[in-house]
Amino acid sequence: MLLEAPIAPTLLRLAAPNVLVMLAQAGVGLIETYFVGQLGTDALAGMALVFPVVMLMQMTSAGAMGGGIASAIARALGARRRDDADALVLHALAIAAVFSLVFTVGVVGGGRWLYTRMGGTGGALDAALVYSSWVFAGAFLVWLFNTLSAVIRGTGNMAVPAYVTVLGAFVLVPLSPLFIFGWGPMPGLGIAGGAIALMAYYLVGSVVLAVYLWSPRSLLRPSLAHIRFRWVLFKDILRVGLVGMVSTVATNLAIGVTTALVGGFGTVAIAGYGTASRLEYLLVPLVFGLGAPLVAMVGTCIGAGQRERALRATWIGAAMAFVMAEAIGLWAATFPNAWLSLFNNEPAMLEAGALYLRTVGPVYGFFGLGLVLYFASQGAGRLLWPVIGNIVRLAVAVTGGWLALHWGGGLAAVFAAQAAALVLYGAVNAWAIAGGAWFGPVGWPRIQTGTV
């Protein structure tokens, strides 16, 4: 199917369960945000401080390193290297263990320093530290869940991760308020309860994914009895994953620095911006839903030597992602309070969030374009230009935001810099691939005309 079926219908068919899984996973975060928002503005602002760091871990494990894992397995299967594909599973789990430990030690140990510099003070800082400590103490569960999902997606199976995530979201809906507010003899745990419920979700989901992967129904046959690590297989994952991490860090650093700039306008402004920018983060899993099958298709086609088909699939996926993200952005810019009021009704918070959505929402299509081309580049194993695009985005967002404040431009100017950064991010990625950044100019098949 990846090598021969019509591209657009195949991408949509594979993306449908994947978009569902990403919607469910994003819904998990939104559900938690909704209930935490009932605890007050300080709790919402505290969550906004932690959110860029949580998303850094999510995007690193599911997008960057997860894309490297899925790409390596897809290319191995496309080249009919079945033994290597099986062995890549244990290599992926070893990588997950190491990186999860880095996140746990780094964030639990340095959380106060980090969130203070992002503008956290008083009750918002206290809430951020409590939530962050619980989430990052369980970082391995997040990495395990996303790694197992990436392994299964690398085989072209998008349905199993979708089912597991959706069913897990249904479990989390009652679990989150139970832990946050309590019920009957069970005391409420406040913002810590939201984090504990989230970790329970990842634990159960990881167990289910592992049971499937080691079952007869799985395409892969990983064996714990013959563990023999090979650097060449680590390299196959890391050469895509590590470069992708640079891109992911740049994305989340742009959000984190903007949060710090917005912090100069007070806790309520942080809450407004943090709540509004969650919609941008919602685009990440939505585009990822389309990008994950694109990684598998591009990787498999390149592994089989079908370069023209890989490029054609890339541009079809890019058009789909642009239209989807732009439609969401225009809706948010037109009706910002429809999104913001789901979480809090503080007038100043709504004002700050609405300003962000009206400024940045209309260019969300470029964000979707750049992001889906990043995923396609993972499949191709060519990530230089996506990294450059993200660095350009970071430079424009940070420098432009700082200059806006320095020159007295206020929040509107800070957000305008973010909008310009997203446009450049999408444009740089599209220009590079169109110019032959993957493997030079490739001739497109010509339609023959004339008398047969």
TrEMBL record:
- What's the main place this protein lives? membrane
What are the protein's UniProt keywords? Cell membrane, Membrane, Transmembrane, Transmembrane helix, Transport
How does this protein lie in the membrane?
Multi-pass membrane protein
Pfam family name, one: MatE
Coiled-coil stretches are none
Molecular function as annotated in GO: antiporter activity; xenobiotic transmembrane transporter activity
Give me the segments passing through the membrane: 12-31, 43-76, 88-108, 128-148, 160-183, 189-215, 236-262, 282-303, 315-335, 355-376, 383-405, 411-439
Q: Tell me a GO cellular component.
A: plasma membrane
NCBIfam families from the entry? matE (TIGR00797)
Return the PANTHER family for the record: MULTIDRUG RESISTANCE PROTEIN YPNP-RELATED
Name the UniProt record assigns to this protein: Putative efflux protein, MATE family
Q: State the organism of origin.
A: Acidovorax soli
